Fold this sequence. Notes:
Helix content is about 45%, strand content about 15%. By secondary structure, the chain is α/β, with parallel strands linked by helices. It has a five-stranded parallel beta sheet, with helices on both faces. Helix 4 links the parallel strand 1 (about 55-60) and strand 2. The relative contact order is 0.17.
Amino acid sequence: MLTLLSMLMGRIRMLALNRGLQLIRALEAIPEQMEKVLAQNERIKKIALKYASAEDFFFLGRLYNFPVALEGALKLKEISYVHAEGYPAAEMKHGPIAMIDEKTPTVIIIPSGTLYEKTFSNLEEIKARSGPVIALATEDNARIASKVEDVIFLPQTLEPLFPLLAVIPVQLLAYHIAVARGCDVDKPRNLAKSVTVE
């Protein structure tokens, strides 16, 4: 809905018709693409089980995907009680890099596109410090699998719409980690009341 509202405002002001049509077509493909992501649930569960005992996580994303990193960290904290931080990948060197080690997994959202090489550079910084990496990458990325411990491939879409697909695996990772740790995902401690009482 927010994308459609943004497109309306863009068309009123400056968004070209061709770009608007391109966004509409990409939006129409999103439900089917989401089904493809959801079909990877068992794979995502296996990855989650591999890291379920970790006590700290980083989530990194750039531009449109920084909010996905924040959402991934928030969900993991909320339902599994694992310390997690979401950061803009461009800011990783300003502090968070000091926390990277072999016990701290990083979920990095790295779609193909304008910021791919810069994000890949962040990935290499993490690997240089022996940090395990779970990458969320687009299906056309043949290079990534040899560089990370685990990769979840997502369908190709326009950059502004990639978060609609990337948010699914970060939420599923949080869910499966929480279940593996014996947490009640339907009644997170300290949260159940705060969402039902003003």
